[in-house]
Amino acid sequence: MNVTKQIKSKHRVTEFGEVNTSFQTIENIIDLIGNEAMRYDSKFLDPACGDGNFLLALLDRKLASFKEKPNNNTTLFEGKLMVTLGSIYGIDKLMDNIVEARIRILKRFTDAYVKLFDSEIKKHTMRSAEYIVSKNIIFGDALTLENYESGNEIIFSEWFFSNMQISKVDHRSQDLLSCSKT
Hints:
182 residues, alpha/beta, four-stranded mixed β-sheet, two-stranded antiparallel ribbon, 48% helix
């Protein structure tokens, strides 16, 4: 997609209400969040993520906080990178957007990994990254909370790094919404 193009097609605007947020607006919104946007474990959800522009901008800010390359404990550093990837969530009702968002996010993560570690990404790390992105970038409807891929309710996975491994805890969207009302 052209970076300055806010509308992919008139049909998509009419049928789905799809209008992409400008990059300047995205940057301004993230600026309002301040340092929270750079914390590797701060969680963000874009309920109409499109092809991932907002999520990529957040990921860029988070990855920028990894200024130093890993030294002695590369496993801990890698774990923090995986939690960073697992801290961004998106939902969209158009499958082509989901596919593109997943590809773009994985590419950005891979590029950052290679730069930070001065090496190719490990196969097991790439499989883990692909799994995290497949769970966090959801083909569904944020209003009805339906996951179109499973036909069930949207489940959000929360990612942790402990005991030198990545773990997840799943949360039903209804439970998260009921917690936010109290």
